[in-house]
Amino acid sequence: MKILSGFSRILTGIVFIFSGFVKAVDPLGSTYKFTDYFYAFNLPSLEVMSLPLALVLSAFELLVGISILTGYRIRLGAWALTLFMALFTVLTFYLALANPVTDCGCFGDAIIMTNWQTFFKNLILLPFVTVIFLRRNKILPVYRDYQEWTYLALFTILILSLQVYSLRHLPLLDFRPYHIGTYIPDKMTVPEGMPHDEYQAFLYYEKDGNVEEFTEDDFPWDDSTWTFIDTKHVLVSKGYEPPIHDFTIADQEGFDLTDMILSDQEYTMLLVSNNLAKADPEVLMKANDLALYCSSRNCSFYCISSSSRDEVEEISASLGLVYEIYTTDEITLKTIIRSNPGLMLLKNGVVLNKWHANDLPEFQNPDEQFLANALNQERKSKERNLVFFMSVSLLFIFLLIRYLRPTR
Q: Cα–Cα distance between 355 and 8 in angstroms, integer?
């Protein structure tokens, strides 16, 4: 039983820490997911709660995972874990049946799971959670009460710091298909041999005042007295969906510029704003300098947004924007970059770099500096992530060895 109890704590603790961490490094992703659920349940007035709920959920999961794994305040952690799992198992079962939003978001963009997969994941965890709850009083305390509360408070400060950093800058880890180094056209294609979507066509014909439904196989083609009414196509088998399947850029007249931009052999700057009305006007005006810089070099500059044509014209005129604003789907824009606005550097369809609104570059050197800045920041980002993961791994190895004490 001691071995089972220890294994249950390790498994459940790691799952909760991972779930909370991927939400903490990308709080806007969880915010968008809460917003999707509020609109799916016809509760748009609760949208203002999306960000606070995203922050609370990630912090809660991290603290519960740390408590279960290390033994800090284990009795309180076991109660919180059990109540959380009981609530969310019922909730995910309902979501699996109703399917208001296809991606549950429980592991952010790191691991995409359907509602049914999430429900079965919860069912798998429940026996281990039960073991932890039943054995909670047999797990020896690590430190005195005030010491354990102190350590949990320090963990809370670290979690809040990570969340604030991820809101004011781009996430430390980018799990989305537009991460630095991505060749976008490759992510838009269906590999050879992968299944495509299959649809069933239903035909609606009228005869003698009655409308009947047919398929192409059972329609009486030799009877010309039927009058065609309508056709509907129903998806019967979902095929392979490429990671990027909704990336299009069009001008205000509807002309598609996607291929031209992705095949541009020179540098392309994309200023990305999912909603111009909510974007920082100072940043939009600051982008004028970047647009003028690009026009004086062999570089293209585009602003892409989901705002309506009237909004675009009004905001452009009021702020004196010197660049054109093109149209892209709002969800795509939110996926591209976690900033409104944000900046993405492309060359021949490859994502070279991305910047948060708080970190927009100020290029003063010749255009060769574009690539130098992009690659240098990518290198630093990889080194920073490597150091971070090594530090976290060493920390938890130490915690496991030192604090995963045997039970009575």
A: 41
Write down the pTM of the prediction. Answer: 0.80
Largest CA distance in the chain: 87
- Nearest in space to 13 (alpha carbons), one of 129, 163, 139: 129
pLDDT digit string (tens) for 92-149? 999 888 888 888 888 888 888 888 999 999 999 999 999 999 988 877 766 677 777 8
Banded model confidence at residue 70, pLDDT cuts 50, 70, 90: confident
Q: Count Cβ atoms within 10 A of the Cβ of residue 33 and give its class: 0-12 exposed, 13-18 middle, 19 or more buried.
A: buried
**What one-character-per-residue DSSP string does 227-288 give?**
EEEEEEEEEEE-----S------B-TT--B-HHHHHT-SSEEEEEEES-GGGS-HHHHHHHH
Quote the tokens at residue 48. Answer: 């203002």
Which of helix, strand or coil describes residue 86?
A: helix
Mean pLDDT (the chain, rounded): 85
Which residues contact residue 395 at a Cβ distance below 8 angstroms, ignoring those fewer than 6 apart?
Answer: none
Strand, helix or coil for residue 191: coil
Closest by Cα among 310, 309, 306 to 333: 306
| DSSP assignment letter at 141 | P
> Before 341, cis peptide (omega within 30)?
yes
Q: Which residue has the tokens 């609606």?
A: 204
Are the CB atoms for 328 and 292 separated by under 8 Å? no
Residues 349-408 have pLDDT tens digits of 999 889 999 888 765 554 456 556 655 665 566 566 656 666 666 665 555 555 445 444
Provide, rounded to the nearest whole percent, the portion of the chain with pLDDT above 90.
37
Q: CATH 3.40.30.10 spans which residues of the chain?
A: 171-189+245-395
CB-count exposure of residue 98 (10 Å: 0-12, 13-18, 19+) = exposed
The CATH number of the domain covering residues in 171-189+245-395: 3.40.30.10
DSSP H or E run through 136: none
- Pick the closest to residue 284 from 311, 262, 252, 266 (CA basis): 311
Tokens of 387: 């150091």
